[in-house]
Amino acid sequence: MVCGKGGTGKTVVSILLAKVLSEGYRVYIVDSDESNILLPRLLGVKPPKPLIDYIGGKRDEAELESRELDIASMLSRAESGVRLRVLPDEYISYSRDGVGLTVIGKVREYGEGCACPFNILTRILLRNLVLDNDEKVIVDTDAGIEHIGRGIEEAVDGIIALIDPTAESIEIAALLRDVSLSLGKRFWVLANKVDGRVKDILVEKAEEAGLRIDGFIRFDEEIIESCLLGEELRSDSALEDIKSIAYHLKLIE
Ligand SMILES: Nc1ncnc2c1ncn2[C@@H]1O[C@H](COP(=O)(O)OP(=O)(O)O)[C@@H](O)[C@H]1O
Ligand SMILES: [Mg+2]
What is the span of the domain harbouring residue 216? Predict the structure, then answer.
């Protein structure tokens, strides 16, 4: 699960990491950010229908909670456990690299503010997900720590906290570290948009917060440009960095 302050690059890094991992695995991205809608375009796919529609639309929290078994069996489609590859075509879109994208739901499509039901559906999906050895799932989350406390993090194997050269992103990463530790999850800190001059300061600030940075991703003009144009994501230096990080951290072997 990729977490961190808004704008640190969670969506961009999720896509690039998915591309890297797709060299060795069948990779899926679960888009659990209920407000941002650019991911499909950056991945170069048609937006899939949101999973919340599959289970009959947005409901209140208590109702979703109480229907977990029922929802899990709907998502499973007669298999044992939920497998993303058996979802109906309209609920999953595949990129040219074979990365599958599934989207939980977007607040704006439902005209109301509260994202809690989406977080609960994310948790139900992840908790009931069954993966083969050659499958990996990356969860792209919303900004900050709203999902923390909704139990989503319980259902993942590890948390990547993204920081960028801002003090606030470090503070949030420290909170995420505490959550990961208390749940016994694997935890990594990746620093994004790092250029020569700020790197040393960032390392020092992270250390003061008790964080060791596991990898650095360079600031990459190609990314800025494709995000600005709203086109399929292009990247050179950042993609290279994420590739070496993925091997170094043994996310791919
Ligand atoms: N390595 C990078 N180099 C330059 N710009 C980046 C990099 N990573 C992300 N960005 C820029 O930061 C912006 C926010 O990224 P995004 O992935 O949407 O953040 P988040 O999902 O954390 O809110 C994007 O518009 C993108 O242009
Ligand atoms: Mg995002």
Answer: 2-248
The residue whose C-alpha atom lies closest to atom 25 belonging to ligand 1 is 227
Q: What is the CATH number of the domain that holds 62?
A: 3.40.50.300
Q: Of ligand 1's atoms, which has the minimum distance to the CA of residue 6?
A: 23
pLDDT higher than threshold 70 for residue 184: yes
Q: What is the pLDDT of residue 50?
A: 94
Query: With left for phi above 0 and alpha for psi between -120 and 50, is residue 235 left, alpha or beta?
Result: beta
Helix (H) or strand (E) holding 115: none
Ligand (nearest to CA of 225): 1
pTM value is 0.95
Residue 253 lies in a domain: no
Q: How far is the CA of 245 from the centre of ligand 1 (A)?
A: 18
Is 187 domain-assigned? yes
Ligand 1 in reach of 219 Cβ (< 6 A): yes
d(CA 76, CA 46) in angstroms, rounded, equals: 23
| 102, β-bridge pairs | 30
Taken in order 32, 37, 39, 40, the sign of the CA dihedral is positive
> Percentage of residues in the chain with pLDDT exceeding 90?
70
Q: How far is the CA of 27 from the centre of ligand 2 (A)?
A: 18
Count: domains in the chain:
1
pLDDT of residue 150: 62
Residue 148: which of 187, 106, 202 has the closest Cα? 187
CA dist 212 → 58, 108, 173, 198 (Å): 40, 37, 11, 16
Atom of ligand 1 nearest to the CA of 14: 17
Ligand 1 closest atom vs CA 4: 22
Give the residue, by CA position, lying nearest to ligand 1 atom 11. 224
